[in-house]
Amino acid sequence: MSNSTSHPDLTTTTLGTAAPLTVSSLGLGCMGMSDFYGTRDEDEAVRTIHRALDLGVTFLDTADMYGPFTNEQLVGRAIARSTQGRDGVQLATKFGNERLADGTTVGVNGRPEYVRAAADASLRRLGVDVIDLYYQHRVDRDVPIEETVGAMAELVQAGKVRYLGLSEAAPDTIRRAHAVHPITALQTEYSLFTRDLEDDVRPVLAELGIGLVPYSPLGRGLLTGSITTTADLDAGDSRASGYFPRFRGDALEANLRLVAAVRALADRLGCTPGQLALAWVLSHDGVDGLGVAPIPGTKRVRYLEENVAATSVELTPELLAELEEAVPRDAVSGARYGDMSTIDR
Fold first, then answer.
1. Percent of the residues in the chain that have a pLDDT greater than 90, as a whole number
2. What is the mean pLDDT of the chain?
């Protein structure tokens, strides 16, 4: 790994071995700037992206369904207006969760003709000639993964996409996809609150040389300690709905007790609970040769800066063990989603 000149503790990591992509060790999830997490402020969002690039956070993550469509446009405008320009960014987007312009959810779509059309539309909205990392957002169980990845591979051959990824894919799906074209990264939820991939997914990634891009590494904000009731969330924030059971009733109370344990350890270390939780995810980079680049999402500069400061938190093996004892792997209450039907497991 090589140190970034923009922040003393921000490094780079390499996702994948057969088709390696070097990215900043910490990325930025841009979804909440346009959708799902309440109020939107485009000016602040652009400032957040520009500040990220200034700090060396150059791995930006979006998707066509965020907005829908508007988040890609926002990210594209921010990149075009940045001092770094397009060449200083590793740009990732996703297709497969099909939505209409009015926000209506159509469903998961992995048909080859849709793959091609979605990529062309994303390129237009982003205002770029090539996408660095193109993910299938969710696996379409009605379309063989070989057909979907075959169409994605055609995009690489056409020069529209550089590297391929999957999101929330099961081990067998990953193997079959990788046999068609090298998969650079798997994006999936991973945090102190979500560790199930350690059983079967992570070993396959290490075996095949596929990188891991954890989304929601802060447990959708719970691990920051800033959410104590759903009243703390903005109006229209989807976390206050039944779609996220971990934020409801008894489950929330139980999860907040775990957050309190994280806070107690963070206070001893002189950092925030969110920084400690993010440092835990970052500590997995390089283990078993696996490149790991989490993409905590935020739409505000101050939270971005707090996340970047997590790279300065040093966790010894003893501290890691203490943290994992404070938050046992299966202690979190509630499912990740109210409807897990689109998760390929």
1. 90
2. 95
| Residue ranges with strand state E in the chain | 12-15, 21-24, 27-29, 59-61, 90-95, 97-99, 105-108, 131-136, 161-167, 185-189, 211-215
Q: Are 135 and 186 in contact (CB under 8 A)?
A: no
Torsion angle defined by CA atoms of residues 304, 309, 315 and 319, in that order, rounded to the nearest 10 degrees:
-70
Which residue, chain included where needed, has tokens 């056409």?
158
Active site residue 337: no
Residues 6+ apart with CB under 8 A from 249: none
Q: Give me the pLDDT at residue 114, please.
A: 98
**What does the DSSP assignment read for 90-111?**
EEEEEE-EEE-TTS-EEEE---
- What lies within 8 Å, CB to CB, of 55 at 6+ separation is 4, 6, 7, 10, 304, 305, 308
Of residues 66, 163, 215, 303, which has the active-site annotation? 66
Query: Which 8-state DSSP code applies to residue 236?
Result: T
Name the least confident of 135-144, 236-245, 250-259, 336-345.
236-245
For 15-58, the pLDDT digits (tens) are 999 999 999 999 999 999 998 888 889 999 999 999 999 999 99
| Whole-structure pTM value | 0.95
